[in-house]
Amino acid sequence: MTNIEAIIDPHLCSRIKEIGRLSTLPQVTWELMRLLSDETTTSEDLQKVVEQDPALSAKVISLGNSAYYGLRTPATTISRAIVIIGFKELEFLALGLGLADTFDLRKVPYGFDGEALWLHSLSVSWTAREVAAATRLVDSGEAMLAGLLHNLGQIMLVTNFTVQLQKLMNYVNEGHSFAEAEAFLGLWHEAVGYLLARSWGMPQYLQDVILYHHRPEIASGNRNIVSVINLAIELVGLTDFGLEHEKSRSERPGGPEVLPQVSRDEKDKILEKLKNTLPLMAPAWLQMMGPARKKAG
Length: 297
Ligand SMILES: [Fe+2]
What we know:
Elements lengths: L3 H4 L2 H13 L4 H10 L6 H9 L2 H11 L13 H8 L1 H16 L11 H22 L4 H10 L2 H9 L1 H12 L4 H8 L3 H11 L4 H9 L10 H14 L7 H8 L12 H25 L9
Helix pairs in contact: 2-13, 3-4, 3-7, 5-7, 8-9, 8-15, 8-17, 9-15, 10-13, 11-12, 13-14, 14-15, 15-16
The site of fe (ii) ion has 5 residues, from loops.
């Protein structure tokens, strides 16, 4: 997939470029992305960035006091929450809250399950950290960030291209796979996400993850982190938190094994951990999306 513009629907392509030009992520989200992928970040850096945004600050504190992260002594300030929850985890939560604010997946139309897409993204991010720690091939913060954003294209389709999404879901409802439906319409979510990530100037490793997360074997660069995310998708697909249409692609029966350097035993251990922790974290992750709103369609 080298010349993306040549394979994607031209009308959609120019709309994505227009969105890329006219809108971007809020400054605080960019800063949180930078912090999460920078190993030298300190808790003071994180505190400074989160406290710039009072609304985000209040949400982070409230999430820190939720049932999963719940503390015996409630956290009332960001610095206290960082001490108790741990600052890597707080970075993840703060960035998740920023993304949930920008892309309102609770308003998705036409029966697409926005909550499932959100839980999938956070679960892959969480799992990517475990895989990164097991392989030591990539930085764990970058792996978490890549996990959060790997399906940027699906998030864009769901939040900005509802007419195209409706057509896509019609094909799926007729019995076609999600991938077949994307091919009929020329709107592969990997390409949609890549075009946006490129026009926003995201780091190259994120662009590669977004474009190749289902095909690490053809990635032109950053193959380690692309493979880490692919394996994370495969593992999440074995829990209750994987999206059905993401699973089928990740398995690629007969395809090369992803990250053969991670033993079956290690994969089983990570999977066991996921099965125990994801159900406990899911309610807090859903809380990030804000109060339930009426779904359209
Ligand atoms: Fe995907």
